[in-house]
């Protein structure tokens, strides 16, 4: 056993629990004593606690201390890494390490590991949190990029903590450990430690690392308003307050000129921005006004009671900005506490169609400091109901909703659905989530019971379901796009989410092997989404499933349509396996290709799932995935095929495909141009190109499709300007490709140039020109 044990009862209990865990539990979450959805900070804090307690340097009498510490370290290294953690969650075991396991000395874990983990005012940021809360936000941040092995970083740490305590709330104070987040630090241009950068302006601090100088820098970037109040202004405020029930005022009564320019005023104004106005009265100039408040302190909060024209005055006892803010918030109206009946009534009203969403703050026992951020939210969310639920008194309700960490914010919205917030619990971050979630009324969390009801029991509605893990950054990046897609799509599709850390068995039953996995269930048939994590890609995927351009081939249809095809059609087939990563990457490109060639007659784009149609793939000798095979025009059945080995993009496949499509575009030279184009009454569309021109090569398939679209109305030709440079110059061609329209009414070498290479634009323009010309002809015929 271990001998370095603190005599306090709490630590004794902690040690005994860990000793039991070593002998009975193999689960890494149990070993570190963290929940399944623990974030990286929680995991790091748990590991540090274990590391300093059970380090072999402190337990030299235990012969097994080395192995036990390596087990703890393996658990930490696995759970802190997104990819390793995903594999561990799926398969229940750590990936074998290829390197010798080592660990640092006891002093490293005690002094250098997670420098700011125990500072509540400092937000420890990983790459995803930085992206979501700093880089993508207008909120003011001052971020310290540091290394735990940097002596200057440790020297500055006390000053940084002092700054955070003083300025937290006026500006967000963050810290990034560059030993863990080296890619983020590199992206932000960090070349030395510590580097202090102000966001969103991205201004680097270059002063010394003393608290006073850093605070001056922060104050220079705060735009908070502090009003100078005289007798006349106070009368106007008083009248407005009584007439309109305006929000509260915090008044500083300054007795000297120095007091009237206190930096504390600016900090407090920034901390109370949006929901309490801050003013200063110079008592030397307005002694009578100051005396009228009859306060024993120099700070007064003036609030108007709801439904009462008489204002209430409160003397503020605190002196420090953060303490003043907390005290002021304590006087503001409390957030409504829901009991079980009122909570169920709220949900029922939403199910019946109430359009105003609710933000609910779930806590356990006591909200403590959580009220500080919570009370800022009504000002940020004026059109949202806000309430809180004490899960100690409503355990069954919280259990049914799978509320397993505290505090936690959740949005309940029109229709009865709800979503849980997984980001930082800062007011502005929560407000951003609430606005997104409440607008996406078609997105809801699904419990296992609800999932089976809509998927397994034959629900005739389409459900697009995102299986995710709340600690997985790609999952959290996808969720806003998922919500956006639910709002933009015009089809009747329901959107749901399943938390695989909370419902591991459900995800396992549905063969969810990575996060996020997004699946469309259509009448119990499921289609897995592969593609970019954007709203437009999600919508395109759904549309492709509902109105497919790619033909899914079974063994029956493959032999019926492909194996028995005649010489007048072409088939391009993707033989794939759903688990194949390269196949997953090709899937959205394959659908895009099918759309690109949808206007070409007798060209078919198909796919064969080799995991389902094993006999087809085996008979065709498919040994690797994806395998792209083309059965061309002019051949019958499977007698002739071409195998594609190029870049797997829609554009590359598109250009390769056109090598096998008979051209309907005539190759012209100066002689045939004069005979066929200039001396003909037919309308002609001519592509002037050069073989070495990349844009010309890209445009060539587009022009082929145009020729088919306009067949019977316009003849299409192309002329090689590399070969006939002087003639092209005579035709007024100065760049490649150049598209010109020649109509039967007016013939000249110059024709009409069409200023676009978009086939849709060219088609529309040509049709408009020809339709106008026909109207003129018809008018002349009538005369």
Sequence-ordered SSE layout with sheet pairings:
Elements: H1 9-24, H2 28-32, H3 40-54, H4 65-80, H5 82-91, H6 106-112, E1 122-124, H7 127-135, E2 141-146, H8 151-167, E3 172-177, H9 182-187, E4 195-199, E5 203-204, H10 211-219, E6 227-228, H11 231-244, E7 248-254, H12 263-271, E8 276-282, H13 287-291, E9 299-304, E10 311-315, H14 321-331, E11 336-337, H15 340-351, E12 358-363, H16 370-374, H17 377-380, E13 385-390, H18 395-400, E14 408-412, E15 418-420, H19 427-439, E16 443-445, H20 448-456, E17 462-468, H21 473-488, E18 493-499, H22 504-509, E19 517-522, E20 525-528, H23 535-546, E21 551-552, H24 555-562, E22 570-576, H25 581-596, E23 603-609, H26 614-619, E24 627-631, E25 642-644, H27 650-657, E26 666-668, H28 670-678, E27 684-689, H29 694-709, E28 715-720, H30 725-730, E29 738-742, E30 752-754, H31 759-782
Parallel strand pairs: 1-3, 2-3, 6-8, 7-8, 11-13, 12-13, 16-18, 17-18, 21-23, 22-23, 26-28, 27-28
Antiparallel strand pairs: 2-4, 4-5, 7-9, 9-10, 12-14, 14-15, 17-19, 19-20, 22-24, 24-25, 27-29, 29-30
């Amino acid at each position: 056993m271990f001998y370095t044990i603190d005599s306090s009862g709490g630590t004794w209990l902690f040690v005994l629990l860990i000793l039991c865990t070593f002998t009975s539990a193999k689960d890494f979450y149990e070993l570190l004593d963290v929940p399944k959805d623990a974030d990286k900070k929680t995991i790091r804090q748990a590991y540090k606690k274990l590391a300093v307690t059970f380090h072999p340097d402190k337990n030299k009498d235990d012969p097994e201390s080395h192995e036990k510490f390596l087990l703890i370290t393996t658990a930490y290294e696995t759970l802190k890494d997104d990819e390793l953690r995903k594999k561990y969650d799926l398969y229940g075991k750590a990936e074998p390490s290829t390197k010798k396991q080592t660990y640092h000395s006891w002093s490293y874990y005690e002094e250098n590991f997670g420098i700011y983990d125990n500072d509540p005012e400092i937000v420890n940021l990983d790459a995803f949190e930085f992206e979501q809360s700093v880089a993508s936000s207008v909120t003011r941040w001052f971020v310290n990029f540091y290394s735990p092995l940097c002596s200057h970083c440790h020297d500055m740490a006390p000053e940084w903590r002092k700054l955070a305590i003083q300025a937290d709330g006026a500006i967000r104070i963050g810290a990034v450990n560059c030993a863990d987040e080296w890619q983020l630090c590199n992206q932000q241009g960090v070349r030395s430690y510590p580097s202090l950068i102000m966001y969103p302006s991205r201004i680097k601090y270059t002063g010394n690392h003393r608290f006073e100088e850093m605070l001056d820098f922060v104050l220079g970037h705060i735009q908070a308003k502090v009003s100078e109040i005289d007798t006349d202004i106070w009368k106007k405020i008083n009248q407005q307050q009584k007439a309109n029930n305006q929000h509260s005022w915090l008044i500083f009564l300054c007795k000297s000129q120095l007091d009237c320019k206190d930096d504390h005023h600016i900090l407090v104004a920034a901390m109370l921005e949006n929901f309490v106005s801050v003013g200063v009265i110079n008592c030397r100039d307005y002694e009578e006004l100051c005396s009228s408040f009859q306060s024993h302190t120099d700070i007064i909060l003036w609030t108007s009671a709801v439904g009462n024209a008489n204002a209430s005055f409160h003397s503020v006892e605190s002196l420090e900005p953060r303490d003043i803010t907390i005290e002021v918030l304590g006087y503001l109206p409390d957030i409504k506490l829901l009991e079980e009946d009122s909570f169920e009534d709220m949900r029922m009203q939403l199910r019946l169609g109430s359009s105003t969403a609710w933000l609910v703050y779930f806590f356990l026992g006591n909200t403590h400091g959580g009220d500080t951020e919570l009370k800022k939210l009504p000002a940020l969310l004026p059109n949202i109901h806000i309430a809180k639920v004490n899960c100690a008194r409503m355990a069954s309700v919280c259990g049914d909703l799978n509320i397993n960490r505290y505090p936690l914010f959740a949005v309940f919205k029109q229709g009865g659905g709800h979503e849980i917030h997984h980001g930082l619990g800062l007011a502005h971050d929560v407000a951003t989530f609430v606005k997104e979630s409440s607008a996406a009324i078609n997105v809801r969390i699904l419990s296992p019971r609800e999932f089976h009801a809509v998927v397994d029991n034959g629900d005739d509605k389409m459900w697009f379901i995102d299986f995710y893990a709340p600690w997985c950054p790609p999952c959290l990046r996808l969720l806003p796009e998922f919500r956006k897609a639910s709002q933009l799509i015009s089809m009747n599709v329901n959107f749901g989410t399943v938390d695989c850390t909370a419902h591991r068995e459900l995800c396992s039953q549905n063969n969810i092997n990575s996060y996020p996995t997004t699946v469309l269930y259509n009448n119990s048939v499921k289609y897995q989404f592969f593609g970019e994590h954007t709203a437009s890609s999600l919508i395109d995927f759904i549309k492709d499933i509902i109105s497919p351009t790619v033909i899914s081939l079974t063994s029956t249809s493959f032999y019926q349509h492909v194996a028995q095809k005649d010489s007048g059609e072409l088939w391009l087939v993707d033989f794939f396996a759903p688990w194949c990563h390269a196949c997953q990457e090709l899937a959205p490109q394959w659908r895009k290709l099918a759309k690109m060639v949808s206007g070409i007659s007798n060209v078919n784009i198909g796919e064969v799932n080799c995991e389902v149609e094993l006999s087809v793939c085996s008979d065709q000798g498919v040994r690797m995935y994806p395998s792209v095979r083309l059965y061309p025009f002019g051949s019958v059945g499977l007698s002739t095929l071409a195998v594609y080995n190029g870049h797997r993009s829609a554009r590359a496949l598109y250009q390769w495909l056109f090598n096998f499509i008979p051209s309907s575009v005539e190759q012209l030279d100066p002689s045939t141009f004069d005979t066929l184009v200039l001396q003909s009454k037919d309308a002609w569309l001519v592509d002037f190109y050069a073989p070495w021109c990349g844009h010309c090569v890209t445009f060539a398939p587009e022009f082929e499709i145009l020729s088919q679209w306009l067949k019977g109305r316009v003849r299409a030709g192309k002329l090689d300007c590399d070969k006939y440079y002087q003639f092209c110059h005579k035709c007024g061609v100065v760049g490649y490709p150049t598209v010109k329209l020649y109509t039967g009414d007016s013939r000249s070498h110059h024709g009409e140039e069409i200023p676009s290479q978009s086939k849709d634009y060219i088609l529309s323009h040509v049709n408009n020109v020809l339709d106008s010309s026909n109207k003129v002809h018809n008018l002349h015929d009538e005369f």
